[in-house]
Amino acid sequence: MVQELPHPFSKYLRSAMMPHIWCSGCGNGIVLNCFVHALDELQLDLDKLVVVSGIGCIGRTAGYTNADSFHTTHGRAIPFATGVKLANPELEVVVISGDGDLFAIGGNHFIHAARRNIGIKVICANNFNYGMTGGQQGPTTPLESITNTTPYGNIEHPFNLVHLAAASGATYVARWTTLHVRRLTQSIKRMLQKEGFCFIEVVSPCPEIFGRQNKMRTGLEMMEWFRRSSVVENFSDPSKAEITSEKIVVGEFVNVTKVSYEKFFHEKLAQINEKAVEW
Amino acid sequence: MTKKRALLSGVHFMNGDIACAEGALAAGCRFFAGYPITPATEIAEHLSRRMPELGGIYIQMEDEIASIAAVIGASYAGLKAMTATSGPGFSLMQENIGLAAMTETPCVIVDIMRGGPSTGQPTLPGQQDVMQAKWGSHGDYATIALSPSSVQEMFNLTIEAFNLAEAYRVPTLLMGDEIVAHMWEKVVVPHASEIKIVNRKKPSASPGKYGPFVPDDDLVPPMACFGEGYRFHATGLTHDEMGYPRTQSSEVQAKLVKRLCEKISRNEDKIVKVEEVMLEDADVAVVAYGIVARAALSAVRKAREAGIKAGLLRLITLWPFPEKPVAKIANQTKAIVVPEMNCGQIVREVQRAAKTTPVSFLSKLGEEPHTPKEIFESIRRNA
Amino acid sequence: MPERIMHEPLDGKKVKKPKAEIHIISDQCKGCGFCIEYCPKKVLEESQEINARGVHPPKIVDESKCIICSFCTAVCPDFAIFVVEKPCKEAC
C-alpha cells in the first residue's frame, strides 16, 4: 500500500522516457519486464550491454532500457548488431524486435546471422501482425486471421519461427508466451550466458489490433488463449512446434554448443599472426 | 602481436581498388563489411587478406544493406568502418546512408561507378551516380563526396574521406569510377609522420551529463561509443539532443534537420577541395572530375598549344558542391565546358553556380571516357 | 529441465512466513488486469477509483494472503506493481 518505494527495476529503465507508449494489455511491457528481470538476476554490467531494436512497437524497447541502445531502420537490427559485436566482442549485444521486422524485411539477415553463429542474442516479440502501422498481415499471421490487409482471412502460411531459427543454425532456441514470465526470464538468463547466436520467440498479445480483429478484444482474452493452449514440450522437434487456436507449443528447443563467429575469427587471427612474415 | 604493417610506406604499383583499400588501412580503418560487386570487388578481396593481418575485422555480409548496417554498428562500437560497392549496391544502401546521416555516424562508403542504370555495364565506367551521392536517400541531410582521378588519389582521398567522416560525424562517399579503380599506376605511400589522421571528438562530459547529439560550436557533437559507460540512445527517428525520439515536435525536427545540413554547408570552406590548372588567364574553363579530368587536362594543354587560353577546374570534392570556385572562374571566363560520363548531373550544379556564363555540356556514355580530342573540340567551339 | 517444486518446506512449522508489502504505482497502471487475474491467491481486485490514465488500477483485498510469489511483479507490462518482503521487525 505504501507508495514511496521506486519499482525495483527502475534503474534498468530510462526514467525520462517512461511511461512507455504501449497499449493496455500489450505484451511488449512484459517482454521488457522479463528482460530487465534477467539482467537483474545476472547482475549484468549495464555498461557492457547494447540493446538494438528495429522498427515496430517492440522497437521502442531500446529507448526504454537504460543501456547503450540503438534504434535502427526496419529489418536491419541484426546486421547492425553484427557490426557492433564484431567490433567489440566484449559487449553483450541483444536485439529486441518484432516478427515483421525480424522475419519479413529482416528475414535474410536473421538466417545469415544464425548461420554464421554471430554471438548476438535475439528476442522476438511475436504478436502475429504489424501493430505499429495499424495491424497489417505479417509473416507469422495465422491462416485465416483477419488483419488490415487480409480482410477476408489470411491465405498465407505463417513461419514457424523456432523451426526457422533451429534450421538456420542458432545455438539456443526457445519459445514462451508472455504468460510464462518465469520461464521466459530463465531463458533470457540462459541465453545471455551462452556463446553464439541465440533466439527466443515470445508469443505476445496485441489486444488493441490483432486481438480485436480476431475475437480476442482484451489482453486478458489473449492471455487466456495462451493459458488454455500452451503446452511445454522441451526439446521436442521444432518443426512440429505449431501455434494454433488450440495449441501453442512452447519450451526450449535447441541448446547446443558451437563456436561463435567472433571466437572463430579471433582464433584465425591468432593463427595468421603466428605465421606472419615481415613484408 | 601482429608483424604486418598497416602502412606500407614506399613506392608501389597498384590498381585503384587496392590503393583505396590500403588508404583505408592507413587511415586506421579496422572494420570492413561488404558484398562482392564489379568493379569494387577487389577492395573487399584485398581487405579480406589485409584486415586480419592487422587484427581488424573483415566480413562478407549477405547483401549491401547488411554491409552498411554492420558498418554503422561497428562505427558506433568505436571502429573506423568502411564498405565498398557499385551502383546497384549503392542504391540498396541508401536507406541506411540516411540512417548514418541521421545518427551522425562517421563511416566511409566507396562507390566505384559503372555504367547504369540498373545492372547496366558492370565492367565499364560511368559517372551516373554523382547526383545520387547527394540526394540518394529520402529526406534532407548532407553528405560529403570525393572524386579521385588517379590511383594515387584513390589512396589519398580514402584517407581524406575517413578524416572528413570523423571530423563531421557524417557518412562520406568516395565516388570512384571503374577506370580509376582498375587501372594500375604508381602509388607513393608516405611515412606515418607525413599522413594527417583525424579522429572523432570524444565527449568531455561525464556519463550522467552527456547528450549524444549536443553540438559544439562547429555543429558537430562529440561522439561516445558503446561500452564506454555513457548508456546513450540513438535512433533514426527525429530525436532531441539526448537522442530520444521526438516525432511529434516540429521544433525539434526543424532544429535537427537544419543542423544536419548546416553541419556541412557552414563548414564548406574547410571541406571543399579543387585543383586549378592554368585558370588565371583562361577564356574557356573545363570543369571535370574523376577519370574524365585526366582527358580534360590533356585537352586543355592541347588547347593552349593551339593558342586558346583554356584552363581546368578539377573537382576533388563533389559534395558539398564547390560553388565558390566555380562561381569565381565563371566570372573570369567566357564559357565553361563540362564533360561527364552521364546525361548531365554535375553540369546542373555548374550552371547554377556559373549563373550567366554559358555552360556547355559534353556527354559520353559507354566504355571510353571522353578523348582529349573530343574535349578539345568543345573548347575550341566555345573559345 | 523441469524444475522440482517443493510443496511443504521441511522446516515449515518452525520458520515464520515472510509478510508481503504490495506496492501499487496507480498512475502507471493501464488496467490490463493481468495481476488481478493471475494472482494465485486472489489478493487483488479491480478498484473503483480512476487513475490518471482513466482506468481502474488494482486494489489489495487481503495483503496477508500474499505469498510473495511476485507473479504480479513479473507479469505487469507497465511496472506498476511490485511486492517486497516486509522488513523482519514489522513482519515478525
Structural overview:
Chain A is built from ten helices and eight strands. Chain A starts with 27 loop residues before the first helix and ends in a 5-residue tail after the last helix. By secondary structure, chain A is an alpha/beta fold. Chain A is 35% helix and 16% strand. Chain A has an eight-stranded mixed beta sheet with strand order 2-1-3-4-6-5-8-7, sandwiched between helices. In chain A, helix 1 crosses helix 7 (181-192). Chain B is of the alpha/beta class and 383 residues long. Chain B has 13 helices and 16 strands. In chain B, the strands form three sheets. In chain B, strands 2, 3, 4, 5, 6, 7, 8 and 14 form an eight-stranded mixed beta sheet that branches. In chain B, strands 11-13-12-15-16 form a five-stranded mixed beta sheet, with helices on both faces. Chain C is α+β, with helices and mostly antiparallel strands. Chain C has three helices and four strands; from the N terminus they run E-H-E-E-H-E-H. Chain C has helices at residues 34-38, 71-75, 88-91; strands at residues 20-24, 44-46, 58-60, 81-85. In chain C, strands 1-4 form a two-stranded antiparallel sheet. A two-stranded antiparallel sheet of chain C has the order 2-3. Chains A and B meet through strand 2, helix 3, helix 5 and helix 10 of A and helix 3, helix 4 and strand 10 of B. Strand 2 (68-71) of chain A pairs parallel with strand 10 (233-235) of chain B.
Summarize model confidence as the mean pLDDT of chain C: 89
What average pLDDT do the residues of chain A reach? 95
Evaluate the radius of gyration of chain A: 19 Å
CATH architecture of chain A: 3-Layer(aba) Sandwich
CATH class of chain C: Alpha Beta
Sheet having the most strands of chain A = 8 strands, mixed
Task: Kindly report the greatest chain-chain contact and the residue count on each side.
Answer: A-B, 44 and 51 residues
Radius of gyration of chain C: 15 Å
- The largest sheet of chain A has its strands arranged as 2-1-3-4-6-5-8-7
- Quaternary state of the chains: heterotrimer
**Helix-strand pattern of chain A, N to C?**
HEHEHEHHEHEHEHHEEH
**What percent of the residues of chain A sit in helical stretches (DSSP H or I)?**
25-40%
Strand content of chain C: 15-25%
Strands of chain A, count: 8
Annotated CATH architecture of chain C: 2-Layer Sandwich
Helix fraction of chain C?
Answer: 10-25%
Q: Report the principal-axis shape of chain C.
A: elongated
Could you tell me how far the N terminus lies from the C terminus of chain A, measured between alpha carbons in angstroms? 73 Å
Number of helices of chain A: 10
Give the topology string of chain C: H per helix, E per strand. EHEEHEH
Largest sheet of chain C: 2 strands, antiparallel
